Amino acid sequence: MPKKKPPAELKKRGRKKIPIDYEKAEKLASIMCTQSEIASVLGIPLGTLDHDPEFLRIHKKGMEHGKASLRRMQYAAASGGNPTMQIWLGKQYLEQRDKMDVENTITTEEVLVRERALIEIVKEAIRAEADPETTRKIVAHIKTRCNPVNT
Question: What is the model's pTM?
Fold first, then answer.
């Protein structure tokens, strides 16, 4: 029986381990780079990064750091008097909204009249079996009688 080689002499199997620059990855994540973008910058396949628990931990940490940094800058801008940022932050965190006044200029009576007219037009189209010329006339009639009143 052949003699077994000691472990030091055995060839290692599988792919060589690709070194990952975790420091650079964290810096990229802190400026909100996606995993795909980081993989591209580092020259490493995305699948390799997806299966590296240390990279996933560092990416999450970097992204959270980036979000906090961005929030800090937004707050500083708002505190410095930037009205756009003040309004935006108010909408995001204080549930403030733009008030939109909508005024209905058509009465219920006008809506009912228009609905009745439309029903009559549809009945006429059904009776006439709506050839192309009749259809054109009906559409023109609807446009003149059923469009909202311009005020």
Answer: 0.53
